Amino acid sequence: SIKALPSPHVPRQARVDLAEWQGVTARPEDQIVIVSVGELGPWGSGRTRAEAELGIHSDGQVELSAGAVLELAWGMGLLSWADSPTPGWYDADGNLVPEEDIAQRYHDEVVAKSGVRPFAEGMGADYCDGTDEEEAEVYLDHDVSFTVPTRAIADEYVKMDEAHTSIAADAESGEWTVTRHAGSMIRVPRRATMTRTVGGQFPDGFDPTKWGIPASMVGDVDPIALWNIVTTVDAYLSAGFSPSEILQAVHPSMVASTQGTGFGGMASMRKLYLNRFLGHEIPTDILQEALPNVVAAHVMQSYIGGYGNMVQPVSACATAAVSLEEGADKIALGKADFVVTGAIDDIGVESVIGFGNMNATANSGDMLAKGIEPRFFSRANDRRRGGFIESQGGGTVLLTRGSIALELGLPVAGVVGFVHSYADGAHTSIPAPGLGALAAGMGGRESKLVRDLAALGVAPDDIAVVSKHDTSTNANDPNESELHNTLAHAIGRADGNPLFVISQKSLTGHAKGGACIFQVNGITQLFKSGVVPANAALECVDPKLARDDHMVWLREPLNLGARGTVKAALATSLGFGHVSGFVGLVHPGAFEAAVART
Description:
Layout: E1 32-41, E2 44-45, H1 46-55, H2 66-75, E3 79-82, E4 88-91, E5 96-97, H3 99-112, E6 116-118, E7 131-139, E8 144-148, H4 151-160, E9 165-169, E10 176-180, E11 185-193, E12 198-200, H5 215-218, H6 223-239, H7 243-249, E13 255-257, H8 266-277, H9 286-289, H10 292-304, H11 319-332, E14 338-345, H12 349-357, H13 364-369, E15 393-401, H14 402-408, E16 414-422, H15 448-454, E17 463-467, H16 476-490, E18 499-502, H17 505-508, H18 515-529, E19 531-532, E20 551-553, E21 558-559, E22 568-575, E23 579-586, H19 589-596
Parallel strand pairs: 13-14, 17-18, 17-22, 18-20
Antiparallel strand pairs: 1-2, 1-15, 1-16, 3-4, 4-5, 6-12, 7-11, 8-10, 9-10, 14-15, 16-23, 19-21, 22-23
């Protein structure tokens, strides 16, 4: 196992001061708590992503601790542990590497192979040279002949274009000659240059078998489903318990899953629709791997073992937030006691081209022409933003009832203070602005948002941070800022009380359905450290945002914990299809205070 060394960017965590939580009225059994988060994205796990988030500088340099370098180097296959001949870490050539040399030797390499960067060979042949395989229609100016083994196959070519096709038997070989005559249309493959050549990719060399995934599963299960299993395993192991331990205390029918995905098995869909068309050999069961719900099914059947609800939301880029809502609702309604929530998505040629055709993503050539490095193509709220940078990843959030966490001694990373999804019914555009989430403030100071947070000892002025969806599109960033600023005034936040913004996608890119996992995990890490990460890509804040008087955009990390506990934070996750996810998370001190009173 890898034990990460303390990060130089994170101060020692202060003990919870229960005097700060006198207003808590919600009992442990009334609270829904996050007991762990497992994450995988362009910077590896949530642990290494947090290090990069606090260690990145505006010049593109990233400082990582020795522990983070070791974890990434191990995941990339640069190092492996062996007990013999001498216990220790060995490089790819089998040479023992002294532990004290690992950080210096591998730091720059793991940084270069992580995060937002040009598409490389690790993304597949369709990306490696900035081109995509396409087929062009051309018309023959002369006859072309070829042979096939049987008459039946020859007839299939005739049926496709009877006016321009003839066949003839070859008595000597027994084969049939098919002739396509001049004027016939044929499709010829070509390599077409892509306009989007940068994305947030898993670190180079990451292999799911390193996390215990059997090699037999790798060829049969879609890659994104494998990585989803990895994030769930990580969530359990990071918290120090296993699925079997939960099943000993919670009936299997009360262990549920609401994990979702925006796309599902993209690699499998490509095989199903494109490779089949091209005549490539494909697995006979590839259809099942292309189904979105199968991503979650593999987790439940291969690792969790629960028999409870299986509800898999598909809500585009808001999927993880909707999954969290579904999980919390299941617990609140008594339909489940423990829920595996979350979402994950992949990158595929189809999504890269599709988003590019919509002008939703940043044109790589345009950004480079402006002198912007690929690492900073995603630049939320900046005047020179050009659209989002597509990414892959997501993860797992484990939810349970507070009383169960208390009974089993499970760690509590945060309390779900409020979670709700909304539509944007008044807008005809599919990528709607997300303003339907203004309904979270319905009733102003008497809104459900305010009342639910109050039960956990949190007033509107205690909300310190908002983790925004912040895709770096021209429309989203100011719309979302307006949303939060309007809500802040509506629920009674005092004038002049800053609301610090986290723009996480500036580091990770946009993982679509899995994006809110990074946000939720980042907030639980904020509760531990008290440090608000900055947006290193932000050079000049868009003047449109001057109207939002509560919002503050950071270019350097800020240690809010030095002033006191970061008691609560909000997150918004906005998806195509009019879906808005709104999440309010509260520091685990609210749970500890409730326990202290039992």
